[in-house]
Amino acid sequence: MTDMTAFWANTLRSHWGLEAKLSRLDGEYDLNFLVQATNGQDYVFKIMRAGCARELVDLQIEALEHIATEAPGLPLPKVLPDLKGALLIDIQDETGEQRLAWLLERLPGQCYAKATPKSEDLILKLGRVLGATDRALEQFRHNSLHRDGFKWDLTQAGWVADKLNTVSDPDRRALLATIATEFDGIADQLSALPKQAVHNDANDYNILVEGELGQRKTISGLIDLGDMCAAPRICDLAIAGAYIVLDHPKPERALTALVRGYHAANRLSPEEVDLIWPLLRMRLAVSVVNSTLMAIENPNDPYVTISQAPAWRFLENTSINGGLMPARLRAACGLPVTDAAERVHTYLSDHRGHFAQMFDQDLSDAPMGSLSVENSAWPQNPFHMPLEEAAKVGEEFGEGLWLGYYNEPRLIYTEPGFRKGPWKASDRRTVHLAVDVFAPAGAVLHAPMSARVEAVENRDNHLDYGGVVILHHETPEGDPFYTLYGHLDPEVCGRLKPGDPVAQGAAFARLGDASQNGGWAPHVHFQLALTTDGMEADWPGVGDPDEMELWHAICPNPAALLNLPDDKVFYRPTDKQAILQGRHDHFGGNLSLTYDDPVMLVRGWKHHLFDEWGRPYLDAYNNVPHVGHAHPRIQAVAADQLKRMNSNTRYLHPAQTAFAEKILSKLPDQLKVCFFVNSGTEANELALRLARAHTKAKGIVTPDHGYHGNTNAAVAISAYKFNKPGGNGQADWVELVEVADDFRGSFKRDDPDRAAKFADLVDRAITTLQEKGHGVAGFIAETFPSVGGQIIPPKGYLPAVYEKIRAAGGVCIADEVQTGLGRLGEHYFGFEHQGAVPDIVVLGKPIGNGHPLGVLVTTREIAESFDNGIEFFSTFGGSTLSCRIGKEVLDIVDDEDLQDNARRMGSRLLDGLRQIEAQFGCVGDVRGMGLFLGVELVNPDGTDGTEICKYVKNRMRDHRILIGSEGPKDNILKIRPPLTIGAEDVDMILWALREVLSEVGEFTPAPVCDHDHHHAGCGCC
Ligand SMILES: Cc1ncc(COP(=O)(O)O)c(C=O)c1O
How remote is the CA of residue 845 from the centroid of ligand 1, in Å? Predict the structure, then answer.
C-alpha cells in the first residue's frame, strides 16, 4: 500500500469507523477510491483536488440528499455521514494540503458504455430514470446552481461559435456553423422555459447497467453530479441523447426510446420536445470544439482526437433525417406531430361525406383487395418485382374499380431503397401509408377539396410513381395539410405547376398506364400528410413496421377525404398475441414454440421467411424446405397434379415408378426396393418391422441421444425422448451405445483409433441383447447424429459397427432423414462419407420439401422376408401427388446444383465459424459438413454453455436469423438452412454471430440449482 493510500485508509477508519481495502479509481482531477470494507459493503471515497470549490461539492451532496428524500427508489448513490454526522470533511492530506473528502454508497453494475446490447428497452429505462431524477430535482434550490460561464451549460453553449476557427477542416467548420445557427434559432424558445437543477452529464460512463445474460438489463446507477447546473430540463435529456445515439446501430430508434422513457416519468410539452434535436447536436458541437481546444493544448495526446470520432461520425451521418426528428419524438411521446394536427383531424372527420368524389363514382361500395403479406403472393419473389408482375398486381380483383388498404404490410416494395441495411433480411419498409384506388388507366381524378399545387413531377424511375402531384390544402381555420396522388399519367406535368389553384371537384389528373406510372397496374396511391417537414416532395409511401407510431401520426388514414369510414380501408394484420392465445387454448402444452418472443411466419421464398408485418428472416435452420420455401416448380407440380387426380398405390401410375427410379439412381445397387410412407417416423416404424421380419429377432442397438420419430416404437429407439425427464425409459429390447462424438465423448480427436474404439462399444450391446434372448434385429442410427449435437462420427465408425451387427445376424438401418439428399455437399448421403452400405435407408423431411413424405429403401432379400402374405398399404404413402413432389425435389437438387451449393456455402460458413471459434472463448467446437453444422458453446470453465446457447439463439432471432439449438445439454447451435442459401446470407450469419457472441463476454453461469422447490436466496431458483 502506498503512503497515500494508507493515509486515506486511516482517514476512513478514524472518521467513518470503516476498516477497508482501497483501490484507485479513474478521476480527471480528484482522487477517487473504491472502498471494500470488512463489513462487506463497497463504497466510493472521493477526495477533492486541493483548492476545489466547497460549494460545488456541497451542491452535489445536497442534491443527492434531496433526491434520496424525494424519490428514494432512484438509483443515485447515498452519501454516508462520518461518525460525527458530517457528510463532507475538511482534512489535511499526507502532503499537508487541505482537501475535502466524502463517502458515497457504491452502486452495482457496469458502465453503460461497456454494456451490450444497448437495447431500446434499456434506453427507455434510462429515459425513465433521468426523467424521474429531473422531477425529483424540480424543487431543489442551491446558490451554486447558477454557474456563470460554465462551458457545459447548454444554455450558454453559444461560446462554440466564437471558437469555430480552431476547427481546421472547412466542411466540419461549416457543419458546426450550421448547428450553431440552428441553436441561435431556438434561443427564444429555450429562454422561455423554466430552469431547474439538472444532472447535466448523463454520459455513458455516468450510467450503470445491471442484468444477467439473457435477462432484461436495468439501470442500476446514475452517478457523478459534478456538472450540475440550473437549466431547462430538456437540456438534461438532450445531453443524455447526445451520448445514446453515438455509434448506436439505430440512432433514431435509440433516441426515440430515451425520449419516450423520459416523457413517461416526466411529461414534456411539444415545444420542449422540438428542442431536443437542435440541443443534442449543439451538445455534440460543444464536445468536439472542446476537445479540439484540448488537442491544441495537449498536442501529444492522441486520445483527445480519438474521443471525438464517434461524435463526428454521428454529426456527419447523412442518413439521419433531422427534419423528421420533431415529429418522430413527438409521436414517441404520444403528442400531436404538429400543433394543428388535432384540428385537422376534427375537420376531416366532420367533413367526411362532403368532400368531392375523387372518381366519377361513389367509393362506398367499392370492393377492397388485399395485397398483404398474409393474403397474397405478390410478388412471387419478395426480393424482385419484375415489370410483368408489377403490371398485373391485383389482377385477381378484376378490372373494375377496387381499393387497396392503408396500413397494409406488403412485399411488393422490393427495390433496394426500401431496405434499411446491407442484408436481404435487414429492416425493410413494407407498410402502405396510403389508400390505393385501382381503376382503368385514363380514369379522371377530381380534387376532394380546393388546393394549391405543392409539387408536380414525373418520377420515371423503375417502379416509382410516374406522374405525381402533391396538393396543399387548408382548413377554414387556416390549418394546412397535404395530399399526394401517385402513378398518374405524366401529362399532368405539362398542365400544372406549383402554386396553381385547384378547385374542389376539379378534374386535375388521370391514372397512368403501366408505361407511364412507374410500371404498375393502373391505380392512384392517395396519401395524406399533416406536415411535409423532413419529407418535402419525397414522401415515403410505405413505412417500417416498427416505426408505425410515427407514420400513423404524420400520414394518417386518408379515408375521410374519400368519404369512406376509416375502418373500411384500415388493414389489421393477424394479431400474433391472439394466435398465441389460440395455441394455448387449443393445443397441448408440449407443442413447443421456439424463442422467448415467438415468430409468426406467413410467407417464404427460398431461404427467407416473412412475418405478418413483412419483416424478413433468414432461415438458417429449417431443413424441410430443402430446395427452398415456395419453390415455383413444387407449386406447379402440386397444382398440376391436384387439378388432375390424386390416388394411392393400389392403382398403377407412372409417377410411382418415376419417383422410385429417381431415388434408386442415387443409391448403391444393393438397395432396390422402395416403400413410400408419410413421414420419417412411419419409415422408421416400417424399418423395425422389416428388420424383425428378416431376422426373426427383436433387439435393436442404437446410439444414445438419437431421434427417430414420435410413435411408440420410434420413441422406444429414440433415447433423446425416452430418457428425458417424463420419458418412458429404455425398453428391454433396446441397447444404447455411446454416440461417436470425438469432441466430448470417451475417445477424442487426437486418438487415431477412436472410430474402432467407439465401434467396439457395440459388442457389449450385442451380447446383452443375445443374453436377454432378444437376439439382434438390427442397428439404427442417424448417420450423423443431429439432435445429439450435429456430430460427424470419425471415418470408419459405421463400417466397423455394421460388420459386428451383421455378424450377429442383424440388419443395418441408416436414418438419413437429416443428412440425405445432398445437404452434406461432398456426399449425397451420410453413409457415403463413412464408406458403409446400409441394408435399409430411411428418408423423410426434405424429400417432400414440406409435403408429408417418407421413404424406405431396402434390399430385395429384406423386402421378400417382409412379403409374408400380409398386405402393406399406407393410404397416403406414395399418393400420386407425393410421388410427383418427391421426384420434383430430387430433380431440383440436380437441376439447380444444390448439392454443390451446399458444399461451397458450407465451406464458406465453416471457414467463418472457425475464425469465430479462434476469436471467442465461448465457442468450444465448430463441426459439420456442407450445410449440416454445429457450434458447441462452452462456459469459461469448459462446462456446457446451455445459457449462452439460449441467449445466442434468441439474439440471432433479434437479428432476424433463425437457427436452432441442440445436444443433450442444448448447448450446440444448429445451422441447417435450405440448400439455396447464398454467400451474402452466409456472411450475414457470420456477422450476426460475431455481434451476438461479443455480447456474451466472460459470462459465467449461476451455480446449478439442485433445490426441488423455490429456495429464496440461492440465486438460481
Ligand atoms: C433423424 C430423424 N429421423 C426421423 C425423424 C422423424 O421424422 P418425422 O417427424 O417426419 O416423422 C426425424 C425428425 O426430426 C429425424 O430428425
Answer: 7
